[in-house]
UniProtKB/TrEMBL annotation:
Membrane topology listed for this record: Single-pass type I membrane protein
Name of this protein: Ig-like domain-containing protein
UniProt cross-references to Pfam families, sorted A to Z: V-set
UniProt KW keywords: Disulfide bond, Glycoprotein, Immunoglobulin domain, Membrane, Signal
SUPFAM superfamilies linked: Immunoglobulin (SSF48726)
InterPro entries the record matches: Cell_adhesion_signaling, Ig-like_dom, Ig-like_dom_sf, Ig-like_fold, Ig_sub, Ig_V-set
Cited Gene3D superfamilies: Immunoglobulins
Organism expressing this protein natively: Stylophora pistillata
Length: 355
């Protein structure tokens, strides 16, 4: 930063934010520094109005001051780490985090001062994140969180949702409140660090919430930036299987037509069901695929539900009766649902399907 800019900055008299050094300015009467090196803490001033910054530095608050900075206070006391404290420095330092300066009267009546600008930065770090994979289940609320520390502390945490674990660079962050998923942001202290905590709140679990959720936070000052992201896979757990259902309990079919009878069945993570059967009336033997019948299981849009379909070809009078689908699983009671097939003698007007 040039002298001119700095003077402009110092003219701004009030400031919303002062980021300050732990040591009072008085301690810096004796600031000395190594003459060369990158970390020079040294400056010269020619005018009483403002200090001239010779070299700005960027430091990690709490980090050790490199020996080449060689800051000595009052000749003896060494400052070993960069620290900050809630102490007001004389002037607004604008975009700079800190200006150390010392003003005094020189022999010839002119002011002298020493100053340097110290920027505090620390790359964004994830302090805590919800475990992955994480589970969401029906009608249960869920929260995912990401906690970041950094200097300066980011003001924003963005969340992204992806179907696959590949980060789609072109996607937009999730909007607050979309599909009932709300985000909150708060400043907290964690492990003695100031941190920002972002929480994603799911209203009640549903399968559409499955996916990969990534939180991203970034910070930066002019000429320096950092960011970090963290991904959580969310898996929906199917609810406990319920008995099969049918959309109609009676289906009519014309003679010589084909008819399909459909049961909607539940499946779950434990592998249920083990077996599925179609039975006609009180027959002991389940129906099997043949010229007469075709039995299939079809996926649906939901991983928790499947269609169990019995197709009867060339319907005749003898096909009428009660057909039931049986759902069986080890350690679970067998459940079933049934459909009554009626055969109409009228002309064949096409197929009738239950669905
Ligand atoms: C999201 O919306 C809720 C409710 O309107 C609000 O309380 C919350 O602060 C918002 N979160 C963010 C990050 O804007
Ligand atoms: C995050 O940092 C990487 C380098 O570490 C950079 O390439 C990328 O553009 C940054 N992303 C954002 C969103 O700032
Ligand atoms: C019934 O299904 C069979 C086998 O798919 C097909 O050949 C026949 O044309 C169908 N009959 C009617 C009336 O649709
Ligand atoms: C259906 O019945 C017709 C007439 O009886 C017969 O020609 C045809 O082969 C039958 N189709 C099947 C798939 O059994
Ligand atoms: C199976 O049915 C019996 C009798 O209706 C009931 O007591 C038992 O709790 C059921 N078991 C399961 C796993 O649902």
């Amino acid at each position: 930063m040039k002298n001119q800019n700095f003077e402009q900055d110092t003219r701004l008299s009030s400031s919303q934010l002062f980021l300050l050094f732990s040591l009072s300015l008085a301690l810096f009467e004796d600031v000395s520094s190594a003459p060369t090196t990158k970390c020079e803490i040294k400056a010269s001033c020619s005018a009483p109005a403002g200090c001239q910054i010779t070299k700005e530095i960027t430091v990690n608050p709490g980090a050790k001051i490199p020996t080449n900075c060689a800051i000595t206070v009052r000749g003896t006391e060494k400052i070993l780490t960069w620290q900050q404290a809630k102490q007001r420095i004389v002037r607004n330092t604008g975009p700079l985090d800190l200006v150390l300066h010392e003003v005094g009267e020189s022999n010839n009546g002119k002011y002298v001062c020493q100053c340097t600008a110290v920027h505090f930065t620390r790359a964004v770090d994830l302090l805590r994140g919800s475990s992955s994979p994480n589970i969401i289940s029906k009608d249960k609320k869920l929260e995912l969180e990401c906690v970041f520390s950094a200097w300066p502390l980011p003001a924003v945490v963005n969340w992204y949702k992806d179907k696959q674990p590949v980060i789609d660079r072109a996607r937009l962050p999730m909007m607050n409140g979309t599909k009932g998923i709300y985000q909150s942001l708060e400043k907290i202290w964690l492990n003695e660090k100031e941190a920002i905590r972002s929480v994603l709140r799911f209203p009640s679990g549903s399968e559409e919430h499955e996916g990969f959720y990534t939180c991203i936070s970034a910070n930066g000052i002019q000429g320096w930036s950092s960011n970090i992201s963290y991904m959580v896979q969310l898996i929906f757990i199917c609810p406990l299987p319920q008995a099969p259902t049918t959309s109609s309990s009676v289906v009519s079919a014309s003679k010589l037509s084909n008819v399909s009878l459909t049961c909607l069945i539940d499946s779950d993570e434990s592998g249920c069901p083990d077996d599925l059967y179609w039975y006609k009336n009180n027959d002991r033997v389940p129906l099997a695929s043949s010229n007469k019948y075709n039995i299939v299981v079809k996926p649906t849009h939901s991983k928790c539900k499947q269609e169990f379909i019995l197709t009867i070809f060339n319907v005749t009078e003898e096909d009428k009766g009660k057909y039931s689908c049986h759902w069986m699983c080890e350690y679970e009671n067998t459940t079933k649902a049934s459909i009554v097939l009626k055969v109409s003698t009228g002309s064949t007007t096409g197929n009738l399907y239950s669905s």
